[in-house]
Design goal:
The protein is of the alpha+beta class. Helices cover 38% and strands 20% of the residues. The chain has helices spanning 18-26, 51-54, 64-70, 81-98, 118-121, 124-139, 151-161, 174-178, 191-199, 205-210, 213-220, 222-232, 262-282, 315-327, 375-391; strands at 10-15, 35-38, 46-49, 75-77, 102-106, 109-113, 143-148, 166-168, 248-259, 285-296, 301-312, 335-347. The strands form 3 sheets. A 5-stranded mixed beta sheet has the order 5-6-1-7-8. It has a 4-stranded antiparallel beta sheet with strand order 9-12-10-11, covered by helices on one side. A 3-stranded mixed beta sheet has the order 3-2-4, sandwiched between helices. Helix 7 links the parallel strand 7 and strand 8. Helix 4 (81-98) runs antiparallel to helix 6, helix 11 packs across helix 12 and helix 13 (262-282) packs antiparallel against helix 14.
Length: 416
């Protein structure tokens, strides 16, 4: 039986130049101007660029110094993740009114399965048109949409539809659509894999599809080779998963200059622990495993983790473990990146969000055992959350941070 339009059930929605677009909406004087959002320090990178900035060759992941040289008249802004989160939630709420099967991939993109919504809202292309119009009308943001029978092809279609477009890949035409495309458009083909495939004469997805699967397995390894071969033939059975478990919540930053003083790093760990704890509470989660991440001057990166006997979302608990982990590692010639994260997350109803084997660490906070539910400590941190929401992230913090600014100014644009 020939494929029909009823086989089109997957949408991929991607908000165009999201961070920059949110900034242009917040400040109308920025509309039509080259807006670059990212870390403003010496080692900062571009997180997003408006399409006006892209005309100068500016793109995400570009070093900020190079972006300034390419677009000297641009407007350079540090990210405002709270604002981007608010805008994202507004868009996701619109999507969920059409179907509960919404799988966010990031703040600015999501997959939708509209198979159960077509009787009420029309065909998948009709739903895509309506959603683009509604997102623009209600949020001011422009969304590009790909419509297809699989997640893989829908994502390719939305990428090719940018900016401000929609592309429908009719059922039965997927192979004709994907085979002429550059092989680097395949999920899992980065620079190293691309170079290795080029040595095999592979330039397009079609070239890769023409190779025997065994050749790819020999060149790339079993799992990677089979994965790419399947995608090249549009064998993608992954469903849209609306309840993807959050595996960790963290914050990391790259510094303008390497830090060699352990006490400065200790204060930085405390500040990050406060941010992580606040995000945990906002997400109504607790965590059991604290992870510390360090990147050295030579770009060598290590992680260290310990597990608490009880889950927590309090900064004091997180900071105590993270600083203990920091005390146990060498600083060497300097640290260029530092991160703190919580893993083994649980929802406040106690549901496990994913666990793994870790060593446990008994805590000693103020001379006593850790108590993640300590009402006095929780009341203090809840009050701090309220002050930050009203007056900004730097309005209140631990006393140990009062003289922090005299030591280092982190590149806040690199935070996650």
């Amino acid at each position: 039986m020939a494929p029909s339009a009823t086989d089109l059930t997957i949408l991929h929605i991607d908000l165009d130049a999201f961070y920059a677009s949110v900034e242009q909406l917040a400040d109308p004087s920025l509309r039509g101007r080259a807006v670059i959002v990212g870390g403003l320090g010496r080692r900062g990178v571009v997180a997003a660029a408006s399409y006006e900035a892209r005309e100068y060759g500016v793109h995400s992941a570009m070093p900020m110094g190079r972006a300034r040289r390419a677009c000297p008249d641009g407007v350079f802004l540090a990210p405002r993740f709270d604002a981007y989160g608010d805008a994202s939630r507004s868009v996701m709420a619109i999507l969920r009114e059409v179907t509960p099967l919404v799988e966010p991939l990031a703040l600015d993109e999501a997959f939708l399965d509209v198979s159960g919504a077509r009787r009420l809202h029309g065909s998948a292309p009709e739903i895509a048109v309506a959603l683009r119009r509604r997102v623009l009308a209600e949020t001011g943001l422009v969304a590009s949409v790909g419509v297809a029978s699989t997640k893989f092809v829908a994502k390719l279609a939305s990428d090719l539809a940018k900016p401000d477009g929609m592309l429908v890949v009719e059922a039965g035409t997927e192979i004709d659509f994907i085979h002429p495309l550059e092989v680097r458009r395949l999920w899992g083909v980065g620079p190293k894999t691309g170079d290795r495939l080029a040595q095999l004469g592979v330039r397009t997805i079609g070239d890769l599809a023409a190779l025997p699967e065994e050749t790819l397995v020999h060149a790339l390894g079993d799992a990677h080779g089979r994965h790419l071969h399947s995608l090249a033939w549009n064998r993608d059975k992954r469903p849209v998963e609306p309840e993807r478990a959050v595996k960790s919540i963290g914050h990391e930053e790259t510094f303008p200059t390497d830090i060699t003083e352990r006490d400065v790093l200790g204060r930085e760990v405390l500040r990050m622990a406060e941010r992580v704890a606040e995000r945990l509470r906002d997400a109504r989660r607790t965590g059991r495993t604290v992870q510390l991440k360090l990147r050295y001057k030579d770009f060598r990166t290590i992680t260290r983790s310990r597990t608490l006997p009880e889950p927590t979302n309090l900064a004091a608990d997180i900071a105590t473990v993270a600083r203990g982990l920091l005390d146990a590692v060498e600083i060497g010639e300097g640290i260029r990146l530092l991160g703190v994260a919580m893993q083994q997350l649980l929802a406040l109803d106690g549901q496990d969000d994913g666990a793994g084997p870790h060593d446990q660490l008994p805590l000693d906070i103020d001379g006593g055992a850790a108590r993640g539910s300590d009402p006095r400590r929780r009341a203090v941190e809840d009050s701090m959350d309220a002050v930050r929401r009203r007056f900004g992230d730097d309005a209140v913090g631990a006393a140990a941070l009062l003289d922090y600014g005299a030591h280092v100014e982190p590149d806040r644009g690199a935070g996650k």
